[in-house]
Amino acid sequence: MDPRHNPYAPGAGTPPPELAGRDDIIERAAVAFYRIGAGRAARSVILYGLRGVGKTVLLQRIRLAAETENFVPVVIEAPEERSLPAILGPALRAALIRMNRGEATKSALRKAFGALASFARVAKLKYGDVEFNIDFSPELGVADSGDLETDITDLLVCVGETAAERKTVVVLFIDEIQYIPEAQLAALITALHRASQKQLPITMVAAGLPQLLGQMGRAKSYAERLFEFIPIGPLENDAARQALCVPAGQEAVTFSEEAIVEILRRTEGYPYFIQEWGKHAWSEATASPITLDDVLRANEVAIAELDASFFRVRFDRLTPAEKRYIRAMAELGAGPHRSGDIADLLGKKNSAVAPVRARLIVKGMVYSPSHGDTAFTVPLFDGFMKRIMPPLL
Predict the structure, then answer these.
(1) What pTM does this model have?
(2) 10, 105, 143, 343: which sits with the fewest CB atoms below 10 Å from its CB?
(3) Angle at which helices 257-267 and 292-306 cross, to 10°
(4) Which one of 3.20.20.140, 3.40.50.620, 1.10.287.130, 3.40.50.300 gives the CATH number of domain 23-231?
């Protein structure tokens, strides 16, 4: 069929044409925003799940909802090997400028700019990757101690006081939050806790991989009480059908029941994969309805596309030892697997491969769903590893 009308949109963080099965989560975030804006208690929101479940898309949709309420978004992606001050400072600078409205003489706003200037000056000395500047005199004694926990707390409190003065809400939107080192994550948690205690209109919606729960618990023991942790998993059957069929229906195209069943079986309900299979099934079909034969032809193309992009980009970041560890996991199946079983397959003691496993967790390739277990963070990665790498001898 005509590729110009293909409605499917596979891609990293690309909004799907039909965001199915997530309305409840969007509403929970909206309720939290409303309560915080009204000076009432509400917890920050943490979305966690495997890759391909649509966390980034959901984060973007919640951000758009916040902007329609004239709240102030602070949008951050936490890349690997960057410090929290390096990514937080420029984003807060943009938020303060947005709240300025040409009235930087107001007391809370002036203090917040000064606090950010202090924070930038001290952070540059402590973290080599801090590069932003701000044309305000530092606020002496605020965010300038050199202790990250104290300084981020001072800074977020000043930003929250500015939001209160402006009668708005500042929302930190942080993607890939699992990449923030635990000591720096602890500082952020402390700052949000203090702002919550002072009932300031500043909150956070973040997204990350499943290991985030353990990271935040280790960073601060009270994190589970400060945040609402919301698991994001594959779509239930009805929502998966909706994500697949509604976009095609808007183009007056349907799927046969057999085609739908095959796509849902192949994709296991993961939104990213539904978009990939929908795209290629559309391309293989010559007319509506899209049939099982069309989907069977699309299977090979969809898998090749995933291998070349979604899977390969993660595989190429691994060392040879890490690739062998992942290949051993794949040999055992989709998982999760006991770490000892993986070590046995590699012919090594568990203690000998533990550093490799730890590096894979840091890289976001695997996580520990329970003590002693290891699982992929990327769905269907076991099949990719079997296709790309020969069995271990």
Answers:
(1) 0.89
(2) 105
(3) 20
(4) 3.40.50.300
